[in-house]
Write a structure and sequence with these properties.
The complex is a heterodimer of chains A (107) and B (118). By secondary structure, chain A is mostly beta strands. Chain A is built from no helices and 11 strands. In chain A, a hairpin with a 2-residue loop joins strand 7 and strand 8. The model of chain A has no long low-confidence stretch (mean pLDDT 97). Chain B has 118 residues and is an all-beta fold. Chain B contains no helices and 11 strands. In chain B, strands 2, 4, 5, 6, 9, 10 and 11 form a 7-stranded mixed β-sheet that branches. A 4-stranded antiparallel β-sheet of chain B has the order 1-3-8-7, with no helix packed on it. In chain B, strand 4 and strand 5 form a beta hairpin. Chain B is globular, with a radius of gyration of 13 Å. The N and C termini of chain B lie far apart (40 Å). In chain B, 38% of the residues are buried. The chains are: A mainly beta (107), B mainly beta (118). Chains A and B meet through strand 4, strand 5 and strand 10 of A and strand 5 and strand 10 of B.
Chain lengths: 107, 118
Amino acid sequence: EIVLTQSPATLSLSPGERATLSCRASQSVSSYLAWYQQKRGQAPRLLIYDASKRATGIPARFSGSGSGTDFTLTISSLEPEDLAVYYCQQRSNWPWTFGQGTKVEIK
Amino acid sequence: QVQLVQSGGEVKKPGASVKVSCKASGYTFTTYGISWVRQAPGQGLEWMGWISPYSGNTNYAQKLQGRVTMTTDTSTSTAYMELRSLRSDDTAVYYCARIGGSGWLDYWGQGTLVTVSS
């Protein structure tokens, strides 16, 4: 199965700062990668799909890039409501797999 | 609007079975697949499998093969996930999610906590 490794495990930044989250795949997933946001006590929410496409209603400060094995989620200017855990997920191969998550903390 | 509403929490003993339901509304049920994802307390997301309400085709995570069955009832637009021979490490919040036109999990249920304890 394809292993997705996210880094860092925790990111602590101040409002207005830029957040850069990484997701590395153990083998190429082409552009079949998505990012989800999960706030405490809530279900995950789709942010980015096909590596770089924003899902419906997602603010422009969220962007995704990458292909093959290396992917990045960028939050251009952090807002207090961005406090959450962010997961990457691939659907290139069965079984679909998730990364272990990056927790974004707001200073 | 698209909604997935799941059944309530369950407490089960080791060795028992649980069946979680996920009622869809706001779209044509047979058009999109349903995936199940679980999350153990304080842990990350684990993909469990997928079912096509249109064909009934399924694909399960290998580690759950033989213990999990996903079904749908198109007359009520409801998906079901049954897990058998429950163990303590099956304690988790179980989510259903729609596989949208993009091929990704675009709408999620609210989650169902299944607790396995003697």
